[in-house]
Amino acid sequence: MVSRADVVSKAQSIFRQVLNNQNLTLTDNLTAPDVEGWDSLNHITLVMTLEEQFNVKFTTREVMGWQNVGEMLDCLEKKLS
Amino acid sequence: MTLTIQPWKISEMSLADLINGGKLVDRKACGVALRMAVLGDCATQHYTNCLSAALKLRGIWPEVYEAEYDTIRQETIDRSGPLYAHAPNAVIFFNCLQKLEERFRKSQNRVNFIDSILDEIIDNWNNVLSGGARVVLQHNFCIPVFRTFGNYSVACEDSFVFMIARLNEALARNAGENGAVRIVDTEGQAAFFGKREWLDERFWCQAKQALSPRFLPCLVKSVSDILAERIGRSTKCIILDLDNTLWGGILADVGYEGIEIGDVSSLGLAFQRFQSALLQLKDRGVILAICSKNDEENVRRVFSEHPDMVLKASDFVKIVANFEDKVTNIRAIQSALDISLDSMVFIDDSAFERDYVRTSLPEIQVPDLPEDPAEFLTKIAGWNLFETGGLSAEDRKRTEFYQANVQRQEQQAQSSDLPAYLRGLKMVADIRPFDGFTLPRALQLFQRSNQFNLTTIRYTDSELLRLAKNSDCDAFTVRLQDRLGDNGIIAAVIARRVSSDLYVDSWVMSCRVLGRRVEEFTLDIVIEIARRHGCGRVIGEYRPTPKNKLVSDLYPKLGFTLDSDEQNKKLFRLNVDGYSRPADLPIVANFFQLDEV
Fold first, then answer.
1. Residue B27: what are its φ and ψ, rounded to 5°?
2. Rounded Cα gap, residues B53 and B49, in angstroms
């Protein structure tokens, strides 16, 4: 069983790597406009890298539906449980 | 110039690492710049970012114009638009399968659909080429996975699968005929990685991305290979280890009968198949050399007597088997062959040797061979180490040329009287204009020569043809033969008549024939041409590059006087009346229909 903290910590390191920002801290309310460099292009890289690193696959509807980082992590956590 | 990264490594990078890695390279770290444009009918931002990063990591600074999404037609037609204002040297067309499917669905005339697409694409090429671009890179189409006719799809003319296969074939044929167009084999790459993953529908639906971005590093790596090859960077030589690289086992331990090669075992078969692939590369002009810690006599015995060896001693230009360290031996091979380290690949199963060579000689590519020999071939295929733009008669005989050269060097080293040695070679040179026979090799010389290249103008096929037909232009090739064999076409010159001067626009020569007075001989031919046309002076131009220092003093050494000295260009002149042929030139000329040029 993977804990939420594990998911957040691993996701955070992926975000930091993709967005090239070592100080980024993930919070549930965080959205793309809050983060420098998180544009639509990097968003695709993020989703793809999360899939690769967590070995999961998001459906198109899931990707379309996320309103913030929290919802993204919820979705990820559900797939891992 | 040191490479920022070994090119093979780019194919192993993740998307994020590649893009972020490219950001760390600045203009100063790049020896050359390349003006280019990317036009696509899919989203190209990721692609362009990755390609720029890959080029930067190879020391090529990209100056990129990226067209808006799906504007290929407008951009190529509009002569006053931003594409032509950017004046790109290279134009890349990334047409994708998904857009083609969309257009097919909306097409009124499905019977002629593929022909009209082909015409449109060729028209795009011609537009940008006549608008100043020197080279076009055209992506071919990934053949779709959805088969409306099942297996019959490959045979049914109405199936999309059939149509795209036909389109790809027609694109390749037309690109070959054009000469300035190179195909990027998207279909081959997609098949290599698996189309289920490559054509991940979600990325098209979400972001109009033609492929899953995780494959972009490999795709752009192969695009950068074509661009790098166009500026004279390609793999000319593979240096191979022996034990556990070309056969299984340690020869010194298991002996001649004990090595694993051939049907003796699964592993033996893997090594044999690897040797077959190397033989195919050798046959198309990549030269092979051995660098192994072994006893040479034992090694030669394996090559000459072992029945299951595919490669023979005669397939190698140099066999170095001794107990010296590998860096010393690679340097020896390099100086014997006289080709640059960055055109060599070193293949060795030992991680220690690889690391030692990589640290000591960073220019030579040293890919990380997989542990299992049965994976060698697939892994090497993924690195795309052997990009080339054509095949000339010289390619097929390159190994022989280099072998004869190694022999010449050995004989020269033994002879204390150089003039006598050169006379003894009995050199004869054929002087031919650019024609169907000489043009492919002339093209190769202009594109690949870096060191002995006075102006480094990278002519394309069609440009050379045009020059050959121009009556104010004298272009010729030099093919050198001697007692030890044929050297093939080793030099090419383009000279233009400008008022009463003969202006040497380009002069390239293979470094294989350095030290044999071919330079003086070539000048003698140039003077002969000047005299025939009544030109009073010969003007020579030199444009410095990071790689052509070798010829910076060529003209003064040949008796020319400096005329003008600008930052990027020096002009030299020689009065034809003041020239006299060196009495002891050891080369005899044969002219072939030079008057008909």
1. -55, -40
2. 6
Pairwise CA distance, residues B278 & B286, whole Å:
9
How many angstroms separate the CA atoms of B169 and B160, rounded?
Answer: 14
In angstroms, the CA B546 to CA B567 distance is: 14
Q: At B512, is the pLDDT very low, low, confident or very high (cuts 50, 70, 90)?
A: confident
CB–CB contacts below 8 A, A to B: 37
Find out whether B290 and B270 touch, Cβ atoms under 8 Å.
no
Q: Which residue of A has its CA nearest to B202?
A: A60
Asked if B79 and B86 count as a contact pair (C-beta separation under 8 A), the reply is no
**DSSP SS3 for B5:** coil
What is the residue type of B115? Answer: D
ipTM value: 0.84
pLDDT value of position B2: 43
Q: How confident is the model at residue A1 (pLDDT cuts 50, 70, 90)?
A: low
A-chain residue closest to B44, CA distance: A41
Kindly tell me the sign of the dihedral angle through the C-alpha atoms of B411, B317, B291, B325.
Answer: positive
Residues of chain A contacting B47 with CB distance shorter than 8 Å = none
Rounded-to-integer distance, Cα B13 and Cα B36, Å: 23
Rg (CA), chain B: 26
Chain A residue with the nearest C-alpha to that of B19: A18
CA angle, residues B477, B479, B480, in degrees to nearest 5: 145
Contacts of B197 in chain A (CB under 8 A): none
Helix (H) or strand (E) holding B302: helix B296-305
**Amino acid sitting at position B158:** D
The one-letter code for the residue type at B38 is V
Report CA-CA distances (Å) from B521 to B35, B177, B452, B581.
37, 34, 15, 9
- Among residues B367, B13, B23, the alpha carbon closest in space to that of B219 is found at B13
Residue B299 has pLDDT above 90, yes or no: yes
Q: Which amino acid is at B243?
A: D
Q: Confirm or reject contact between A56 and chain B (CB < 8 A).
A: no
pLDDT band at A40 (very low <50, low <70, confident <90, very high): confident
Residue B596: which pLDDT band, with cuts at 50, 70 and 90? very low
Q: Of the ranges B74-88, B111-125, B476-490, which one carries the lowest mean pLDDT score?
A: B476-490
Amino acid at B162: F
A17 touches chain B (CB under 8 A): yes
Integer CA distances (angstroms), B565 to B225, B443, B544, in order: 35, 29, 11
Q: Are residues B87 and B132 in contact, defined by beta-carbon separation less than 8 angstroms?
A: yes
Burial of B592 (0-12, 13-18, 19+ CB in 10 A): middle
Token pair in block for residue B307: 């029945």
Q: Please tell me the distance from the alpha carbon of residue B195 to that of residue B503, in angstroms, as a whole number.
A: 54
Neighbours of B453 (CB within 10 A): 24
Count other Cβ atoms within 10 Å, centred on residue B180.
18
Single-letter amino acid, residue B589: A
- Rounded to 5°, the CA angle B483-B486-B492 comes to 125
